[in-house]
From TrEMBL:
<keyword id="KW-0472">Membrane</keyword>
<dbReference type="Pfam" id="PF01757">
    <property type="entry name" value="Acyl_transf_3"/>
</dbReference>
<dbReference type="GO" id="GO:0016747">
    <property type="term" value="F:acyltransferase activity, transferring groups other than amino-acyl groups"/>
</dbReference>
<keyword id="KW-0808">Transferase</keyword>
<feature type="domain" description="Acyltransferase 3">
    <location>
        <begin position="25"/>
        <end position="223"/>
    </location>
</feature>
<feature type="transmembrane region" description="Helical">
    <location>
        <begin position="213"/>
        <end position="239"/>
    </location>
</feature>
<keyword id="KW-1133">Transmembrane helix</keyword>
<feature type="transmembrane region" description="Helical">
    <location>
        <begin position="59"/>
        <end position="76"/>
    </location>
</feature>
<protein>
    <submittedName>
        <fullName>Acyltransferase family protein</fullName>
    </submittedName>
</protein>
<dbReference type="InterPro" id="IPR002656">
    <property type="entry name" value="Acyl_transf_3_dom"/>
</dbReference>
<feature type="transmembrane region" description="Helical">
    <location>
        <begin position="152"/>
        <end position="170"/>
    </location>
</feature>
<feature type="transmembrane region" description="Helical">
    <location>
        <begin position="82"/>
        <end position="105"/>
    </location>
</feature>
<keyword id="KW-0812">Transmembrane</keyword>
<feature type="transmembrane region" description="Helical">
    <location>
        <begin position="117"/>
        <end position="140"/>
    </location>
</feature>
<feature type="transmembrane region" description="Helical">
    <location>
        <begin position="30"/>
        <end position="52"/>
    </location>
</feature>
<keyword id="KW-0012">Acyltransferase</keyword>
<dbReference type="InterPro" id="IPR052734">
    <property type="entry name" value="Nod_factor_acetyltransferase"/>
</dbReference>
Length: 259
């Protein structure tokens, strides 16, 4: 349905079917939902980090090993056009983010992360946003799905600056609906693409303008994003509330999902 709306009906069904098992990244391999490339990448990243953390006891050696894998993944994406199964080539670039999140969460549980005051939080947040904007602008377009990272150092500087910015922001202001979005972020990532196309088409019809023009208008971009988030969170809420499945570790019927 989504590709029909885009006017792309010549996608080979067999290659998409086989890619469910091979999991090579790239939009042509996930015609039904391009964002799903991240799932096998995440699973492989978890496995690799678990093995590395289990058998490399020295944290400095572990950090060097992760950095070496990251550099290797960057060089591979830069010079080798062949995409590895299960998004292994992307995994190498994702691994530093996963490791940083793991160690940050572990230190937070131990109370080892200092709590900044409101003024200090604002100053650090502004500095991080400045780093993010400068590095992102200098680096240009980034697309992990297709292996486009730009400059290695600018990529990680911009990424970690953005991560830390939102980490500080959420520590300073974290209402229930923000926490709900956080716990449902993986679900949103997995299911947002098909409803996105429907919402864009409906908005385009209602506004009487082409979808490409609509997607370049900030008002309609924000409006569509809010509608898509709402639809995804309704799905997330219903699944957690009424089905035997559990998403993002939430207990069925848990109060964390109540707005």
């Amino acid at each position: 349905m989504e590709r029909t709306m885009r006017g792309q009906t010549d996608i080979p069904v067999l290659s998409d079917l086989l890619n469910i098992f091979v999991a090579q990244r790239g939009s042509e391999g996930y015609a039904f939902n391009v964002a799903l490339w991240f799932l096998p990448c995440l699973f492989v990243t978890q496995i690799v980090f678990y093995v590395a953390d289990r058998y490399i006891k020295n944290p400095y050696i572990l950090a060097v090993a992760i950095a070496a894998l990251s550099v290797g993944g960057y060089v591979y994406n830069l010079f080798v056009p062949f995409r590895l199964p299960w998004c292994v080539d992307s995994m190498a670039m994702v691994l530093p983010f996963y490791a940083a999140g793991y160690f940050l969460a572990r230190r937070r549980c131990k109370g080892a992360i200092p709590v900044l005051s409101g003024i200090k939080t604002a100053v650090v947040a502004v500095a991080l946003m400045a780093v993010l904007l400068v590095c992102a602008y200098a680096n240009g377009r980034v697309d992990m799905d297709t292996g486009i990272y730009g400059n290695y150092f600018l990529f990680y500087c911009a990424a970690f600056a953005g991560i830390l910015f939102f980490y500080l922001l959420c520590n300073f202001y974290s209402p229930r609906w923000i926490r709900c979005l956080g716990t449902g972020s993986l679900v949103i990532m997995c299911i947002h693409e098909p409803p996105k196309r429907v919402v864009i088409q409906l908005t385009s019809l209602a506004a009487g303008m082409p979808s490409d023009v609509l997607c370049a208008t900030i008002f309609f971009v924000l409006l569509d994003a809010a509608a898509i988030l709402f639809l995804c969170m309704v799905f997330y809420f219903v699944i957690n509330r009424f089905s035997p499945l559990e998403l993002a570790g939430q207990k069925r019927g848990g109060t964390d999902l109540v707005f």
